[in-house]
Structure formats: C-alpha cells, structure tokens
C-alpha cells in the first residue's frame, strides 16, 4: 500500500525489514517530468485458449490453442484457467479490475468487481505478508473467489548513502512548502520474500506481477500450487521475455496507463497501447491490454486489436468503494483532457498522474533510485494536500465516471458487447 495517498489506505508497517536494499547504482540525473504523446492505432486479433489443468500439479502451464471460448456475456473470454478449480476451468475475464497498490483495491471494490463478472485484482505491492493474506481472506469472504494478487518484482539496487542524502536534501524545500516536517528516518517497505510466501500461502487463482521477470524457482512454486501467472510488459522485448518464461498471460501496459510504468527499466521509454498490441500480436500468449481504457467501446477496440482482455485502473478510481483519497477524487473530477504527466520525482520510477507539484519546477532535481525515493517522499505525500500527493491516473482521467463498482463493471461489459 502507498502511505502517500489514501484515505482508506492502511499505513506501511513502520519497521518491516526490506529484502532488497543493497547499496550501489547511480541514478541518472533526469528531468522529473515527461510530456505525454498521443496514441496511434494497430493490428489484428486472436483469442487463444488454454486447457483446464488439475490443481497441485508441478506441470500446470496450459497449452495455448487457437480455440475460441464464447462466454455467457457474448464477449470473448480471456483464456485464463483457474488451475485450482478444474470444476470452474474458465471465467469470463474480458474485464480485469487492475491491481492498484496503495489501498485502492479495498475489499468492497474487489468484491463488487467480481460480482459483476470482472477478474478482481489486489495490488499488494506495499502490503506486509500478513496484510496480504488478510486482504485475500476478506475478498473471499465477500464472495470474490477468483482473484489476481499483484506484487512488484524487486530489481533496482538501493540508494548509496550519498544519493540518499542528496535526495533528502533536495526534498527539504518540498516538505517546507507543504508545511510538513522532514523526518530523520523513513519507513522500510515490506520484503518481497515475505510477500511472495504469503501470496503462495493464500493461493489466489492468479499471481500478477510488474517491474520485471519472476525467477524460475518462484514460477515453479506457483505452478505447483496451481496459481496462474500474469506478467507485465511495456515493449516487445519484455513481452517476449515473459512469453519465454511461460507465463499464462501478459499485461501489455501502454504509456497511457495511470500509475507506475511496469517496465524493467525504471525510466524506460513507453509505447502507445495500440502500437504495443500490434508489435506483440505474434506472441503465443493471451495479451491483456492496459492503459487509457475508460469505457466498453475502448475495451472493444483493444479486443479488436488482438487483446484477450482489458485491464482498467483509472476507471475504477472514482468508484465510491475505491480507497481513493478525497483530494484525489476531486482532482479526477476536475481533470481536463491533458491533465496527466509522467514523473520520476515521486518514487524514482516513471509514473503517470494528474499534474501537480511533482511535475513542475517545485519538484526535486536530485532523485534517489526506486524504491528509496518512494520512501523519502512517503511522509510528505501522506500529510500534504493534493499538490504534494501522488495523484496517479491514466490519460483517460477526464472521462472518469462516478459509479458504484458493480454498476461500472456491468456497464463496461455491456458497452463492450454493444460496441463489439
Ligand atoms: C493508482 C494506481 C495504482 C497502480 N498500482 C499498480 C500496482 O500495484 N501493480 C500493477 O501491476 N499496476 C498498477 N497500476 C497500473 C494498473 O494496473 C494498470 O496498468 C493501469 O491502471 C491501466 O491504465 P489506466 O489507469 O489508464 O486504466 C496502478 C495504476 C493506478 C492508476
């Protein structure tokens, strides 16, 4: 969870040890913000399918075929198998409610999305192992049986002492401007080992991950428990790597997407979603389109470009059930068409959000590598008003609808069917 944003978000446990915080690696001095290009359009569609696999087998990766599986809604299903439950081999997962760490994916949000027929995700990237298990249990008790739990793959080495000091000093005027005290110490993030083990224990139908590849031992551990894998890619090379690793589906995250870019490189170039779908159309894996999709017509368009399903994040931020802070909701309601910008100043990794102090001349120039910058800015984002919060949102923010989650998810599926 992200201590920065949330009304309904739980705080990072104050002293959970981190599993990966070595010293090293210089962070390139880059301008903190990047303007947003618009999206072109691209290519062809297919809906491969996977076979039902018995649970708890060490070999549960499905064979991808070219079969179509029309669903009860009349929309194509994402061919993701709930490996744990051969009795329910396929779900109608045309729509995925995106994982959004930072307390956005409340139990109410996931349960409502699941009720309407979407695959509900829990963004657990900032949760301790205990909190992760509690979140899964609560969602299940609410009736969301098939869930995708999402974690961040650790990769970047931590900041050197010099980088940490420079980034902290550069943040002093920001804390000052917001009237927030600059702390001497900053909360650690939960360790990946602890999170991953808790995820295995919780045994969700799907484990989705971002910021890199999952190592073979962990992939095998998931397969042994019948947990299907969903990797994330922001370009063809990353998507090919995920396909080589044998994931069950790949989220293709276009540069329109809200939140952190799910690339291996913390500051890698993005690509418009349509171009990304076109570039990856020949990969032998179901593709999940993400980025800037706000209604069912958008979903139908990406299904037509070859996606097996659509993953929407920003569209769900304005649902009353989401853990979105009031200031964030207000900013979403007021957003115009060009309201979002990329910045690395918040966390050390590129992310897209509604423009505020993090994206202009008030932002710090010295930025610690991800995730240390995230730790350094967390107390400011938590205590300050909208100007210094991270207001993550995609390019479709200005098309947000304020609807109960179940109503929104049902409308999205209906609109998609009508447009398809
Ligand atoms: C507030 C917010 C938090 C996010 N957190 C995560 C996350 O924890 N893990 C992840 O894989 N993607 C995360 N994302 C990205 C989404 O999963 C998805 O790719 C993105 O929302 C799609 O673009 P859209 O916001 O334009 O719909 C986040 C997005 C937002 C807006």
In short:
Helix content is 30%, strand content 13%. With 420 residues, it is of the alpha/beta class. It has one domain: Aldolase class I (TIM Barrel), CATH 3.20.20.70.
What features would you describe in this structure?
This protein has 420 residues and is of the alpha/beta class. It has a single domain, classed as Aldolase class I (TIM Barrel), CATH 3.20.20. It has 12 helices and 14 strands. It has helices at 107-115, 129-142, 161-178, 192-202, 216-224, 236-244, 273-279, 296-304, 314-317, 326-334, 372-383, 405-419; strands at residues 33-34, 49-50, 64-65, 95-97, 119-123, 147-152, 206-210, 228-233, 249-253, 259-260, 287-290, 309-312, 340-343, 351-354. The protein has an 8-stranded parallel β-barrel, surrounded by 8 helices. Strands 1-13-14-10 form a 4-stranded antiparallel β-sheet, with no helix packed on it. A two-stranded antiparallel sheet has the order 2-3. Helix 5 links the parallel strand 7 (206-210) and strand 8 (228-233). Helix 3 runs parallel beside helix 11. The two termini are 36 Å apart. Mean pLDDT is 82; it is low at 1-77 and 83-91. The protein binds flavin mononucleotide. Flavin mononucleotide (FMN) is lined by residues 98-102, 104, 123, 125, 150, 210, 232, 253, 256-259, 262, 290-293, 311-315, 392-394, 396. Keywords: Detoxification, Flavoprotein, FMN, Monooxygenase, Oxidoreductase. Belongs to the nitronate monooxygenase family. NMO class I subfamily.
